[in-house]
Design a protein that fits this description.
Length: 665
């Protein structure tokens, strides 16, 4: 997909009609849209949201979409429109999407006329323009709305992906964009068919076997109920998170510098607290491993000398390890020939002498155990017993981190109180709503965790019942055919699961490799390493210790998240051409990002600016003049093919109503 043009007309701050032609060049694939703070950076990103998906994010509201200057210039009984039009090319087909609202003035009132209009046109093979009849969820078929945050996003907020809560979002994006959810759909199909066949098979079963079939069906019903609950809680949590993000944006962009400052302090504090929590979890995990592995050595260390002396006495006597093994004696007897060449026949002196040796011969297992035990004791005696030293160090580290976390949490709560007690009613209202939403998210998270455990338990019970049903013996050609079909569907379902697991792991491994490459090209600290773990956690470690970075800056989280998005986009593009994966492929997607340099250090800014064009086939950057530093301009310039400037309109018009114009420079 390539975005060719964006046209905004009387859309919030944007007065009149303005066109932006985006770069479609393969090498110079970056378009930059610059502007002072307050000239419409957030509005520009929302132009994409509204046209493609029909909504906007706070602090914008669709009720106030019509440009204020256009509204004031509207004469009595005249009409005008607020609209956004996007022209793009997808899979060699050119589309034009337009969404608009009409407005009319009567006296002092300006009001909306009719419903929102949304049209999509495309060019056929001979260049004729034709209308798409069914526009419902049209763009969802290209980039689903629940995944738009990976392709149209605020660069200052994507560091969430590098946090613990980002795991589910990362995994779902990976599956959806690459089409791997089709395998999940197959699983549901096989489950449905298997249950239908189970119901048909039931009439051929005995009473006790029918009870087994009923138990299987009851478990499947219970699982479906839990899955529905899980889906509902996940949807609720996603909506709650979106509402929380909207409130954060509202506070970040508020006119009050005090409010903006407090919100900025809180975000920094929350990022710091999240980093501390990760460190505490890692330290506690290390402490658990230490206790599990090393504490037993400390407990039995006083016995090492006694056991070693005992084994040594056995060695000196020649009893351990033995020179002759019982297996060797058995082999001689079986061959009926001694190593000296004499025959070994039963009841002969030679035979009895060899058998007598077996009484003192050693067993291989005993000798192996002797070698392992003596080796283990020597290793432990030579190693310092530093268990308590390590344990107390870890305990002290956790205590210090907990103290830091408590102080940080107190500061976060204090900021919340200050905002909740604001003299401005809208600030207090938003802050109180934020507190409620945070509580809801925590509740949803706990319920989701519990439901996942319950679903796993039920799935194991279903699997066991299914194995019992596979062993059921039924008679009659029809019954046997039915049972055979059910067994086949069951095996196909298991095969589908294996295929899904294989493709998911193959995808994760490839993404992990690409994330490392992209992160390496942007990182400022050479010893940092980014990875995508088996649990789909975006993780940053230090290469000298392979442990989590103690404190992960917001900038590093942002870089890691950008690395994931770029890796996902490039991998989806490659898979589109991969015939092996053609049924599971994604596509070639652009990236539109607002404020990609906001939270970055000077070094990170230069690295991101230099590499940003490599993240996707087409990159559109919306950036403030403040972020457009010399180091950014110098590094991004070789990839830029189109540069636009958002500026305040004419002074006289500004005195009537603030508005923004867009000019190519």
């Amino acid at each position: 997909m390539i975005i060719k043009r964006l046209t905004v007309n009387n859309f919030f701050r944007f007065y009149g009609k303005s066109d932006i032609e985006f770069s479609c060049d393969a090498d110079k694939n970056v378009t930059v849209i610059r502007g002072e703070n307050g000239t419409g950076k957030t509005t520009m990103l929302n132009a994409f949201y509204w046209c493609l998906y029909g909504d906007v994010t706070q602090p914008l509201y669709i009720e106030k979409i019509f440009n204020e200057l256009a509204e004031k210039q509207l004469k009595d009984n005249e009409t005008d429109e607020a609209s956004v039009e996007i022209a793009f090319k997808n899979k060699n087909i050119e589309y034009t999407m337009k969404r608009k609202l009409n407005f009319m003035r009567r006296g002092d009132d300006v009001f909306k006329i009719g419903d929102e209009a949304f049209t999509i046109y495309y060019k056929d093979d001979i260049g004729n323009s034709k209308e798409v009849k069914d526009t419902r969820n049209f763009f969802d078929g290209i980039i689903p709305q629940n995944l738009r945050g990976f392709f149209f996003f605020d660069g200052e907020r994507i560091d969430r992906l590098s946090q613990v809560d980002g795991r589910e979002e990362i995994k779902k994006a990976t599956l959806d964009i690459l089409g791997l959810t089709k395998l999940e759909d197959l699983k549901m199909f096989f489950d449905k068919i298997e249950r239908e066949l189970n119901a048909d098979q039931k009439r051929f079963l005995s009473t006790s076997e029918q009870k087994l079939s009923d138990e299987y069906e009851a478990l499947c019903t219970e699982r479906d109920k839990r899955l529905d609950e899980l889906g509902t809680f996940k949807d609720n949590m996603q909506k709650a998170q979106e509402n929380l993000d909207d409130i954060s944006r509202f506070l970040e962009t508020h006119n009050s510098e005090i409010v903006k400052g407090l919100q900025s302090q809180r975000e920094l504090a929350e990022n710091h607290r999240d980093a501390l929590i990760k460190q505490i979890d890692e330290k506690n995990a290390t402490k658990t491993r230490l206790i599990t592995k090393d504490f037993k050595n400390t407990l039995i260390s006083s016995c090492f000398d006694h056991v070693y002396d005992y084994l040594e006495s056995k060695r000196q006597k020649g009893e351990l390890p033995s020179d002759i093994k019982t297996q060797f004696i058995d082999d001689l007897v079986k061959s009926e020939v001694c190593i000296c060449g004499r025959p070994l026949c039963e009841h002969t002196p030679e035979y009895e002498a060899v058998i007598a040796k077996k009484a003192n011969a050693g067993k291989t297992e005993l000798d192996d155990a002797y070698h392992r035990l003596t080796g283990y004791i020597k290793q432990q005696k030579e190693s310092p017993d530093d268990f308590f030293s390590k344990y107390h160090t870890l305990k002290s580290d956790v205590f210090d981190l907990e103290q830091d976390k408590d102080v940080t949490n107190k500061r976060i709560k204090q900021i919340g109180k200050e905002l909740a007690n604001s003299d401005e009613a809208d600030i207090a209202e938003k802050e109180n709503l934020r507190t409620t939403i945070k509580g809801d998210i925590e509740e949803y998270r706990n319920k989701i965790s519990w439901l996942n455990i319950e679903i796993e338990t039920v799935n194991k019970k279903i699997e066991n019942k299914n194995h019992e049903l596979e062993k059921v013996s039924i008679k009659g050609a029809q019954a046997e055919a039915l049972k055979k079909r059910r067994d086949t569907v069951s095996k196909l379902g298991q095969l589908n699961q294996e295929i899904q697991s294989y493709f998911i792991e193959m995808t994760r491994v490839n993404l992990d490799k690409r994330i490392k490459e992209v992160f390496d090209s942007m990182k400022e600290k050479p010893y940092r390493i980014a990875s995508l773990t088996n649990d789909f956690v975006l993780k940053i470690t230090n290469d000298d210790t392979n442990k989590d970075a103690r404190i992960l800056s917001t900038g590093e989280g942002q870089i890691a998240s950008l690395a994931f998005i770029g890796s996902l986009v490039s991998y989806a593009r490659d898979k589109m051409q991969d015939k092996l994966m053609s049924d599971f492929s994604g596509g070639d997607f652009p990236i539109v990002m607002d404020s990609p340099f906001g939270n970055l250090s000077a070094g990170h800014k230069g690295n991101v600016a230099r590499e940003i064009g490599n993240l996707a086939s087409q990159v559109i950057v919306i950036v403030s003049d403040e972020q457009w530093s010399s180091i950014v301009e110098q590094n991004i310039k070789p990839r830029v093919n189109a540069l636009y400037k958002m500026i305040d309109g004419d002074f006289e018009d500004q005195s009537i109503a603030e508005h923004t114009e867009i000019r190519r420079i």
